[in-house]
Write a structure and sequence with these properties.
Blueprint: H1 2-10, H2 14-33, H3 38-47, H4 55-80, H5 83-100, H6 103-113, H7 123-155
Length: 156
């Protein structure tokens, strides 16, 4: 089956593209409308609501570090065509992103996780990785702003 799928990919099988397009278009719209779940972030900020509490700041710093590590692991797994490592890194990224409310990152990681083993070195995989990195960077910047805002709120 993988051989047939690989051949279909080389020929640019329009049926495959047509089947994939609607499913990912909906996910892209969701990612465009909500990068971060504001309610989730607010509930996490309230867990450490004391003036000297750094829970939220540490949580975001840990997430950003782990997400950077996952991005490196994902890129390496694609480059070496290590399908199990790719799925493991994406699973970890999805889980931590979901817990923090980074919904656009969840959508982008889920999309990349749908790749088949024979697609790992494809241009499509590289495009998905590029998108994942862009969403990751946007998410990281917005989380940094959330930390800054939470710190200002505690000071005032």
């Amino acid at each position: 089956l993988e051989t047939i799928a690989r051949l279909a990919e080389r020929k640019g099988d329009p049926v495959d593209d047509a089947e994939m397009r609607p499913r990912y278009a909906e996910q892209r719209r969701a990612a465009d409308t909500q990068v971060l779940d504001a309610e989730k972030l607010q509930s996490l900020q309230h867990l450490g609501a004391g003036p000297d509490d750094t829970f939220f700041e540490e949580l975001v710093a840990d997430f950003r570090r782990d997400a950077d590590h996952a991005m490196t692991s994902i890129a390496n797994a694609l480059a070496t065509e290590d399908y199990p490592a790719l799925r493991a890194a994406l699973h970890a990224l999805e889980g931590s992103a979901r817990e923090l409310g980074a919904m656009a990152l969840v959508v982008s990681a889920t999309r990349l996780r749908a790749l088949k083993p024979f697609e790992l070195r494809s241009p499509r995989a590289q495009d998905m990785l590029k998108q994942l990195r862009a969403v990751g960077e946007t998410t990281s910047q917005l989380l940094a702003k959330s930390v800054d805002a939470a710190q200002r709120d505690h000071v005032l």
